[in-house]
Amino acid sequence: MNHLHRSFVSTITRCLLLCLLITGPAPAQLAQEAPSQTVIGDSKQQAAVDNLVTIQASIDAKRNTLRDLKEQLKRVEETADRQDLEQRIEHLRNEIAELQQSFEHIALGGVNLSLLAEQPEQRIDWREEVEQISRPLLSTLKELTAKPRQIDSLSREIERRENQLKIIDKAVESIRTFSAHDLPAAAAGPLQQLQTTWEQRREDTQRALDISRFKLDSIKTEGVSWRRAVWEALTEFLHGRGLTLALAVTVSLVIWLLARGLRSLYLKWLYRSPRDSGVKRAPLILYSYRLATAVLMVLATLVVFYARGDLLFLTLAIVALVGVALALRQTLPRYAAEIRLLLGVGPVREKERLVLDGVPLLVESLSVYSVLRNPALDGVVRLPLHMMNNYTSRPAGQEPWFPCQPGDYIQFAGGSIGRVLQQSIELIELSVLDSLVQYRTADFIGQNVRNLSRGEFGIATTFGIDYQHQAICLDIVPERFRSAIGERFIAAGLGTELRSVTVEFKAAGASSLDYQIYVVLAGSAAGAYFRAQRLMQQACVDACNRAGWVIPFPQLTVHTEATTTAPSA
Questions:
Q1: HEC states along 10-75?
Q2: What is the pLDDT, as a whole number, of residue 558?
Q3: N or C: which end of the chain has fewer CB within 10 A?
Q4: Where are the alpha helices (DSSP H) in 271-310?
């Protein structure tokens, strides 16, 4: 654990030194650090000189050995010995070439000499590149499964050798059966030689079987107890990849906390009121902040993996990033359209009006889930941001959001009257003739209903008197009807709601002089719509009774043609 602590502290120190180098020291600090940097530079130079001396000594020694091998090669005549010497000579030449390259690399300060060479442009084989990238992952998987694979291989080898022994035993037994008979010399000799060969083969197979069994037993019995094995594996993980993961998580968490703190400071500085976070006003800022934070966290994680030299984690991270890139290739156009919405240059904008399924809605906010609301209806609609590209909004203006509200009386095209009980984005509940009726909101809007409670409404009716009153039909009768209707509405308690009464001669009917009566009432009297119709007829009848005017009824007049009988001649 002390080693783990020291390794962790050392890694943190390196990260801090890297941050200091990036930010850049002050001139005074450079002056103070100059002596220490000079000492470090001198020590590195001396180490490089020592390496050059060691490499050159090794080159000289190998050249002397190579010279001796060449002399031996001249004196050797056997083919096998010559091949062995030639292989050793070739191996020494390769080692000398590698040492010379190392000598030049150190002497030239580690410059990349391949850039100076004229090389033709090589095509990149993506299969080879993918294989090199995935090699650390495959190597790790191979290490993890090494012991089970060895056990499985040895078990199959043992099974194969046992099957071979069974066949060899049968063959040897068959040969011994023939040898037990008196055979001619011509057949006994080859049979004896065949028996010797198969017995030798049996010994070789048995020896290979024993070796495989020994290896299998060694693998199964080697090692320590499971507690110690688990402890060693856990310790190794904590010292290696566990520490790498801890550092990556720590660095990512620090970046996230710093970004969140900066965002809070920015919002407090930009929006003074605690209720106004600014996110609804500028959602693009929030998304940009999240994207920048995610990119910094990913880069920091890759830097930690690279600094720790953990190729496995680095490979897994690269594979994950490649997968994300492939996924973004399919979804990038959708994200671009969503960004246009957030920037306010898309087909839908905040605080504007759009129609969804026949219902007008106000766009309250555009975010991951956009919020749509109708101020006159209960409930809200939450839609994913990408679906907003299917609609088009426009400035709301002073247009009404819905033709009625709860408590209003509405009249359908058929003449029926209903009172609104409840209205939401989905359903409208009405009371029609004391019965509960439900309409889908879009269907209700399509009815083109007449709202009696909003503003004023008018009621029209027709009334007729007899032709004998023709002399007074244009002046006295209309005035009497108008006064009678006003008195009747006052008596019924609707005098304050009565706005105007119009009585005009309409037409001379077949059996009566007809008047068109039109009454305008305030919206508060909408509940008395049918009662007002009755009051109008009652007032006209009462006026006729008081004035002695006759109310005619439809008459059927039958005209009979006179028949004339001619006198007989």
A1: HHHHHHHHHHHHHHCCCHHHHHHHHHHHHHHHHHHHHHHHHHHHHHHHHHHHHHHHHHHHHHHHHH
A2: 43
A3: C
A4: 283-308
